[in-house]
Amino acid sequence: MRKLLFVFFVLLIGASFVHAETTLEPSYFPSLISSIRINTPLSFCDEDVPLDNREVLERLEKELLITLSDRTQVILWIKRSNRYMPYIEEMLNENDMPEDLKYVAIIESALRPHAGSRKGAIGFWQFMKETGLNYGLTIDKYKDERRNIFSSTKAAINYFRALYADFGSWTLSAAAYNMGEDRLKSEIHEQKAHDYYKLYLSIETQRYMLRIISAKLILSDPEKYGFILNEDDLYPPLQFDPIYLTLSQRVPIHIIAQSAGTYFKAIKDLNPELRGHYICEGTHSILVPKGSAVDFHPRFEKAYTEWSSKNRERTYLVKKGDNLTLIAKRFNVSLQDLLIWNNLKPRNHIHPGNQLIIYMDENRQKAGIKK
């Protein structure tokens, strides 16, 4: 009997797999050889790619083959582009910047707000902290605008405008974006050449422009390369209302979510620049789900008043011999709450003179502070 049941289940499972397979569409991708045959002129920001130079053509073919071999990544490029590219393209157009610069964001981050590099670059355009600060981005313990599509694109536009003023070439500007303007200037001076394709640069920067050109080729005509997606396959564009808040003290993000009739994750997803669980004092532009801006402010005032009446904020000055565990025990709070309130991680060190924020709700106030 057991054997009969086993055979039955095997047949049932097999049948389900056959049914699943019949619902999948067969795939078709052109041959790799035909995919890298380039018969038309190519350009980046209206600057020609010298395909008559066999060495440049070889480098381009290599990058195109590498890109096409990672079909998963290309599909995600296409799907994410529907969500973010309209905003990038609009901002480039409004600032009279070449539209091809949008492909830099593809290569830098694959349009992922939380993308990060080993060197410390973050966000859609992979700004290093110092460069981001130089171009007006807020980067602190509460906010990192490198992850904001609008703020980071504005900074990238200003950075590229400055690079073009220095180099007089969008191709060289992109190379400088990758390797740093001072290093590129030194190489140009030393090699006595002012043409990206004639410069001997780091391997990463030699590949950089050809990777951008590969992305442009594929995303300009994805069906040609076998990537056939319909409208329903694409990730929907961002849908949001902007609201403006001026805060005299920090506010939990869950209060923002409650006031917008949504949840914490929805606010964090729409505002990836927000770090931790609180928004600091100051004036902020925050995105909320489409339609939830109506009557947001009265709901916010009510929710915040209720929360603040139950949670007394206290600032604690760290003393010699303190550690996070001891402080949590002293105030009868959990270590995890203490970390969240102060946007800390367990491995973070505290030092005498540091200030920690502690929220004493009604229960903790009744329990008292342990001396």
Provide a concise account of the structure shown.
With 371 residues, the chain is mainly alpha-helical. The chain has helices at residues 2-22, 32-35, 54-69, 71-94, 102-109, 129-134, 149-167, 170-179, 181-191, 203-220, 253-259, 264-270, 296-310, 324-330, 335-341, 362-367, and strands at residues 43-44, 47-48, 240-247, 251-252, 278-279, 282-289, 311-317, 355-361. The N and C termini lie far apart (70 Å).
Fold and architecture overview:
The protein is mainly α and 371 residues long. 50% of the residues lie in helices and 10% in strands. It folds into 2 domains: 32-36 and 44-233, Lysozyme, CATH 1.10.530.10; 240-367, Membrane-bound Lytic Murein Transglycosylase D, Chain A (Roll). The chain contains 16 helices and 8 strands. The protein has a two-stranded antiparallel sheet. Strand 1 (43-44) and strand 2 form a beta hairpin. The longest helix is centred in the N-terminal third of the chain and has 24 residues, at 71-94. The protein is globular and about 75 Å long. The mean pLDDT is 91.
